[in-house]
UniProtKB/TrEMBL annotation, chains A, B:
The lineage of its organism: Eukaryota, Fungi, Dikarya, Ascomycota, Pezizomycotina. The keyword Hydrolase applies. Pfam families: Peptidase_M20 (PF01546). One of its GO terms (molecular function) is hydrolase activity, acting on carbon-nitrogen (but not peptide) bonds, in linear amidines. CDD domains: M20_bAS. This is Peptidase M20 dimerisation domain-containing protein.
């Protein structure tokens, strides 16, 4: 997360609870589902083909996809998406962030649509399922409803959120974030494309170039939903390890990043006695071991993913080490305590090793609790398909567009197993039966 | 140290003891010194000016010097050196490695000269004293002898060894190494200049370009010395910390580098449970702490100077970490035991963390014991200047050209304090009084 992204975050207002006036729609829908919706089944083979046919836009030889947001490949699948949903009876709207809403009319035109959304962009070396499954499962739902001639009570909107990965424009989930009011439109429009060192290519200029800069405000007010559901691969190994088929996602954990800089003294490896050293890397190694202990004790997660040392000479005691610490926990409060303990312990370790330490909290996202009515819908549906023992209630470990929709409308997610827990990688896999 | 450098090392023959037939010359000289040499004193101010005047070739705004081997700046100081020593009655010889031998005739023309050598090249951001002091102190000795009209028994050779730092041509002490037979001439000539990615610029082509490719073989046989002395800054803090004025260097410690590669598994920081992780960096952190314990227990030195992780994403458990381990000890045998213990412990730590580890011994240099007669000369002279309590016998922690001369002729070194133990840095400092 960049500095400007952080600034945008701190400026944004973040209401915690979804607006209560919308809850009744969800309950109405749940009731309708129980009483009048027959138990339709998706066509596994058709969904499988849809995922793998559209993979041609960005397919890599290793079986993955490279389809960065707002590139010509993204344009191609967006155009396919628009023409496909039109054929299935939807009208489509594109907002100022290029978010596409494919709306299938419901019996009640006064109800805001029920959203089913995810994203069609990928990581630079991404897999075939992350995000894509969520949008194409929505298309499959349209097909099932269409072939059964079924009209839902509320309209249904299948949504492709723009630049969820944040791989090309360096803020993940930015477009659902503008829709929810978390990010300012100008901030998002000005995000530069990662590949253009001149910063002349922006999210807005690319939206314009590929013809997906809509006129409709990207806003939950101008373009409301009554709720948001997202089917996603777990991106972790828990469902597979526990032999579960479906994850009922009750929320998203609290997460964030620290950047830790340890300052020591540049000394000669062969001539400086051990007792006289101020080795930034020896200190950092102790900190890395310690933060892991802190996370384990709190039943949270800690990851040090990036580390670099200066001056990168084997014969020189490093005078500077910078590393990242990713800390997450189901509870925002516990995560705050983990950070406090980490800061104290790092200062203690630095001092004991004649070093100093600076810790910068560059990004954090509080825990999200999804809406009980939406969770209830997911729970009932999941159990009806996978049975009591085939489901698991769980908290998502990664960020998703649903984090932002949840700020404004009742939201929940459905997880399916990720083989080996692998994601953001060409080896990403979930079988069509698991879908 | 590169692969080819390693190959050259393993091919070289490394006799341990200096040739015995030369010892008598050293003893003769020592006797002559005791009986007939008056107690001349160097002109501190003149030496100080010499060091700082010649710093113009490569002076940097921060007070340091950047004078990489065989650049135009190195050419300039070499030409100054040659003209200065000629004026002081020396004849000069340049060998195939560009080593310059400035020889002042002695009473006995049949004795090989007594060598006083070091180097005039620097690190990219080097100080004003490392190497330079050793050569220019030799020039000052010539001046003192000249102004006193004194002729030594054996001839005296002031030597500038080429590319000691190895900063431009990536093998330190390579030219004294060719002279001693440790490196093949062809290997050394073919070393590419670090700044030329095409590898077309070599040590030989640069010698030719600046006019310092001599015809004389770089060889202790074709161009013998009877002994070698080197005045050098300590590059460590021991003399300063203990309030000593002169270090009597009895040898050079055993040293070398391991490159350690830890392989883990690329996992998602937010979704992979701690217990399921194979984090290459968590393993590496434990290894870094452990090798320090091993070094402390053995009274040796360990340094991890370089570390890098892959894929450098804060939100990804790193699947690969590579780091260097510099291990040194006064005793080659103890250092071997440190390496064995390190290898065992690293394998154990890797396994306990579901990782694997590869350890490559990319360079090592056994301990060097300087010649007792030379050490005796240094001891007597040092005590006469600094008093019994002003001297300290010590083992050098870094490599010097004297390591290579010691393979062939009786050698010793003299250390003067380094302020704050700082070296290879513009802040390097030793007062003229300490010289």
């Amino acid at each position: 997360m960049s500095t400007c992204e952080r600034d945008a975050l701190s400026e944004a207002s973040l209401p915690i609870r979804p607006p209560s006036h919308l809850r009744k729609y969800v309950r109405a829908l749940a009731t309708a589902a129980d009483s009048s919706v027959p138990s339709y089944r998706v066509n596994e083979k058709r969904l499988w083909e849809s995922v793998h046919d559209t993979a041609k836009w960005g397919a890599t030889p290793d079986g993955g996809i490279r389809r960065l947001a707002l590139t010509d490949l993204d344009k191609a699948i967006r155009e396919w998406f628009v023409s496909t949903v039109k054929f299935l009876g939807c009208n489509t709207k594109v907002d100022e962030m290029g978010n596409i809403f494919a709306t299938r009319p419901g019996k009640s035109s006064s109800l805001p649509p029920i959203g089913i959304g995810s994203h069609l962009d990928t990581q630079p070396a991404g897999g075939r399922y992350d995000g894509i499954l969520g949008v194409l499962a929505g298309v499959e739902i349209l097909r099932v409803l269409e072939e059964n001639g079924h009209q839902t009570l509320a309209p249904l909107a299948i949504i492709d959120w723009t630049n969820e990965e944040g791989a090309r424009f360096n803020t993940g989930m930015v477009s659902s974030g503008v829709w929810s009011g978390r990010y300012a439109l100008d901030f998002a429009h000005a995000l530069p494309a990662a590949e253009d060192k001149s910063k002349a290519t922006t999210l807005k200029s690319e939206l314009e170039r590929i013809g997906f800069l809509g006129a409709m405000p990207a806003s939950y007010k101008a373009n409301p939903l009554s709720s948001h559901f997202e089917l996603h691969i777990e991106q972790g190994p828990i469902l597979e390890d526990e032999g579960k088929k479906v994850g009922i996602v009750t929320g998203v954990q609290s997460m964030g990043w620290l950047i830790v800089t340890v300052h020591g003294e540049n000394q000669h490896s062969g001539t400086c006695p051990m007792a006289r050293r101020a080795c930034a890397l020896t200190s950092a190694a102790r900190m890395i071991s310690r933060v892991e202990e802190i996370a384990l004790a709190a039943d949270g997660l800690s990851t040090v993913g990036v580390i670099n040392s200066w001056p990168q000479s084997p014969a020189t005691v490093p005078h500077k080490v910078v590393f990242s610490v990713d800390l997450s926990h189901h509870s925002s409060e516990v995560r705050e305590r983990m950070i406090a303990e980490t800061s104290e312990e790092f200062a203690r370790i630095a001092q004991a090793n004649k070093c100093t330490v600076e810790i910068e909290d560059i990004w954090n996202s509080p825990a999200v609790q999804f809406h009980p009515d939406c969770i209830g819908c997911v729970r009932d549906a999941a159990k009806s398909v996978a049975g009591e023992n085939g489901v698991k209630e769980m908290v998502a470990g990664a960020g998703h567009d649903s984090v932002h929709t949840s700020d404004r409308v009742p939201t929940s997610m459905i997880f399916v197993p990720s083989k080996g827990g692998i994601s953001h990688h060409p080896d990403e896999y979930t079988s069509s039966e698991q879908w």
